[in-house]
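Schema walkthrough. Field components (list of strings):
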Amino acid sequence: MGLITREKETAPCMVEVSHKFESLHAHVKFLNGAVVNPGDEVLVHGAPVMAPYGEVVIEERTATITRASTVERLWTKLTGDFEVMELCEFSFSEEVTL
Amino acid sequence: MNAHTETRHGAAVNETTQKASETTLLDPRFYTTDFDELDRIDVTPIREEWDKLIAELRSDPNKTHFKKTADWDPVDWEGMEPELKKELVDFLVSSLTAEFSGCVLYKEMKRRGNNPDICELFNYMARDEARHAGFINDALREADIGVNLGFLTKAKKYTYFRPKFIYYATYLSEKIGYARYITIYRHLEKHPEHRIHPIFKWFEQWCNDEFRHGEAFALLMKTDPKLTESPINKLWIRFFLVAVFSVMHVRDHARPAFHNALGINVDEYDQEVFRKTSEIARQVFPIEIDIDNPRWQRGLDRLRVAMGDMDRAKRQGGIGGAVARFTAGARSGLAFLSLYTIPVKKNVVPANPRLEPAY
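Field assembly_structure (string):
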């Protein structure tokens, strides 16, 4: 990990998107044990994974993990907390007026 | 997490009717935290209460609740007044986004953790959130609004939260969610003529999931007394209380037509929700906000007006907009500071935090 340089790596991953009445969720799991750290960026390759209503789509894909530089990682650790309010239901729309 | 709504005209959806259909692109953020710290959590001091709560979650009391029954009255989306429709949709989308985002966060904590107690808890909570999201999604589909889950193939940066910030924010978010839902439910019980959508009939049992999740975070905070008792953390708790309450106030005021149709006065409703949340939070927080202090309502009003000005300045753009944004931003900051410095009330926190939903 460079101080200001970013490194890229690819990892196989399993993408699961459920668009069902019983469960609406979407997850990415890395199959090689890769671990994502603060500030890292993940891009799943290929066309958007679109699950039609009522279906669950599970696909193996490749993802590029762009590792944050040391400086970025520190910055993300220092500033991430400021965004914690987005975990609250009523704070999602950013506009005060609709 | 943000939800972007884009309108896509119906050619792709339905060529014959040319009906306009909207797609909401869910754009959740991905989070990481200190997973080693989570792994080190030891629930031994609260083992008895912990096991009871996990058993309750395992038994899945709401397993059959989220089914559309005959109680689900048809909604006249077409005939709905446009302003109300816009705000009702916004309410549903932001609720769905919250559930979905909770699911992403909890699932990540489950997957990255190695502590079996913690993993089991987060697994059940992710299950509940995904179920809620599915139910709201169905309600949105009736309004001809689909969600686009294609966000996974866009570059995603991972944001970092310290575990304790996740506890404070999600504990409050779950408990305030419970208080919001039950307050609306009880109000509509008395005034069924204001029930503008059948989803509100599901809130009574639904919010027990939120309540239980909040209980779990209360127990987690009990595993380490420093989390709620150290002077610094008390300041953080105070910050989260003020922030969560004031953001809710600003956001609720952004939906006047929605609250009007429900027959709800936003200020009264918000005070009631703050009251319930404060009472519940005595289970674990040693301080509470004095919401009856005259400075409270005054500060909230000032904050809302300043944030409204900031929003308008942002839309205005240019140098004038930048200046207006700066001054409105400064006024928001001062209003928040004035809310934060209202003397807090102190609580004696019970040894056993567990509560049952009672409102």
